[in-house]
Amino acid sequence: MLGQLFVSLAKPPYVAARQAVTGALFERRYGVTTAGARSREELGFSDEDYNRYLPAGLTSLRRILRKGEVGPDDVFADLGSGMGRVVLQAALAYPFRRVVGVELSTELHEIATGNLERNRDRLRVRDVTLVHADVLDFPIPDDLTVVFLYNPFFGEVFRTVVDRLLESVDRAPRELRVIYGNPVEEEVLRATGRFEEVRRLRGMRPGREWSRSNSFRLYRVLPAGTGSR
């Protein structure tokens, strides 16, 4: 009983406080700015399918994707990369061949560019690119093997991106993994019959919606004809 009370009441604020401290240390160590939220209005997004900016937690990537599961032929893309927090984490800690971040907001892209340039010499991955573009104008690379989505878009935009990911895998068969944080459009993935859940991180915050915002799923994309709707 006491253990359940800790998990439901005490642990969430503890986790939030720990993440805040971890974020501050990360920013100080690398001389970057990645924290803080931006509303859709502040970012100038008129299309309601595009979400506000909120950075993923600093422990999320390493907890959902283990370093031993990434090899030198893997290519990583953060679609909706914001200020570049996850791009930096991927390039600092993993042996990816290439890392790409795609961001629609001019303000966030410029901040991410500064963050990246200040840390070029520290990166494990030498080939890191930030693309300032609408994700709908970004051609999915046919060597992409890991996609990161922290709830950057919804609705028709999300469905179009999912379709393009599947088209890429069908065009160039390979293992593709998708990391999806705050999975509000999870049913879109399930409906395709081609996204097999590999791992999940449950949110540790009170309330269903708030808890979901801190949860992540790792999926493996199945070859065409092997899934079930």
UniProtKB/TrEMBL annotation:
Keywords: Chromatin regulator, Methyltransferase, Transferase
Occurrences of domain DOT1 (ranges): 60-125
Enzyme class: transferase
Database matches in SUPFAM superfamilies: S-adenosyl-L-methionine-dependent methyltransferases
Entry's Gene Ontology BP terms: methylation; regulation of cell cycle
EC number(s) reported in the record: 2.1.1.360
Top-level taxon in the UniProt lineage: Bacteria
CDD domains in alphabetical order: AdoMet_MTases
GO MF annotation: an example: histone H3K79 trimethyltransferase activity
InterPro entries named in the record: DOT1_dom, H3-K79_meTrfase, SAM-dependent_MTases_sf
Pfam families: DOT1 (PF08123)
Catalytic reaction list: L-lysyl(79)-[histone H3] + 3 S-adenosyl-L-methionine = N(6),N(6),N(6)-trimethyl-L-lysyl(79)-[histone H3] + 3 S-adenosyl-L-homocysteine + 3 H(+)
Protein name (database record): Histone-lysine N-methyltransferase, H3 lysine-79 specific
